[in-house]
Design goal:
The structure is a homodimer. Chain A starts with 5 loop residues before the first helix and ends with a helix. The relative contact order of chain A is 0.08. The first copy, chain A, is elongated, with a radius of gyration of 24 Å. The first copy, chain A, has a two-stranded antiparallel ribbon with strand order 1-2. Chain A folds into 2 domains: 76 residues, Multidrug-efflux Transporter Regulator, Chain: A, Domain 2 (Orthogonal Bundle), CATH 1.10.1660; 54 residues. In chain A, strand 1 and strand 2 form a beta hairpin. In chain A, helix 3 packs across helix 4. By secondary structure, chain A is mostly helical. The first copy, chain A, is 72% helix and 5% strand. The interface between A and B is medium-sized, with 35 and 34 residues. The structure holds a DNA duplex. Chains A, B: Keywords: Coiled coil, DNA-binding. Chains A, B: This is DNA-binding transcriptional regulator, MerR family.
Amino acid sequence: MTTYSISDLARELDVTTRAIRFYEEQGMLSPERRGQERIYSPKDLVALKLILRGKRIGFSLAECKELIDLYDPSSGNRKQLETFMEKIAARRAQLEQQLLDIEQMKLELDTAEERCLAALAETKQKQGASA
Amino acid sequence: MTTYSISDLARELDVTTRAIRFYEEQGMLSPERRGQERIYSPKDLVALKLILRGKRIGFSLAECKELIDLYDPSSGNRKQLETFMEKIAARRAQLEQQLLDIEQMKLELDTAEERCLAALAETKQKQGASA
DNA sequence: GCGCAAGTTTACGTTTACGTAAAGGTAATC
DNA sequence: GATTACCTTTACGTAAACGTAAACTTGCGC
């Protein structure tokens, strides 16, 4: 069975060891120990991937923790599942808004760029062929 | 010509007055004054909207400031404009990743939900028609 | 047996984006 | 003239998510 050291995980998922220990401190990971040393299982790897994906989506660590707990079979808690699906829906809606915002901003930046370039051209003309 | 008080703006754009003053402190707004009182113009309203949109997209306030400076005609700086378009492109790419992450998570949550519901059904069956 | 790399804990520091009093000025209204 | 509603400044507080430094142990290679 495969195991990982903390720096294995850090390298593989591109996080710092500090972050990994922090997630453990927050109760999101619970690796085995060999003496002092942390030994991570593939299950831990998956959990860490979940955390990172949650972060990418914009969830807080607290929400990521909820997410992980959701995958814990010991909690057959349907209500939690439903509230979390709502959070995901909210996040999707926010993404839609972000897409709109970005499109809008792109449009405005494009026209700003045009004006800017036009102004530059005008300046050069007034200066004559001085360059 | 229309003007706004700070709480007009706060109401209209759904931000706190504290936030508005903070943005000014950061050099992102410079309203007129009538005595102590801040008087906002439509131009300020636009700037504040820009800030909020930038935030929604996920830009830091520092980046939002760059954004506003971009619209300032006194800076005919094309390089800034280009680097900012790059930031927007990066943000768009991140949004794509977020969409993927959300789709993936939705799939996983859906199957988790199924398993959960199935488990619940099983439990009820074993209990008989006790409810 | 020495050095070095990788691991550990403890603990204070940092950044961002405001929140939250505290303490007071101004202006309309009863 | 007292209340009420807004406005102001100053300033300390806060939450999240680690960064960073200190001080120490453990195992490997030579």
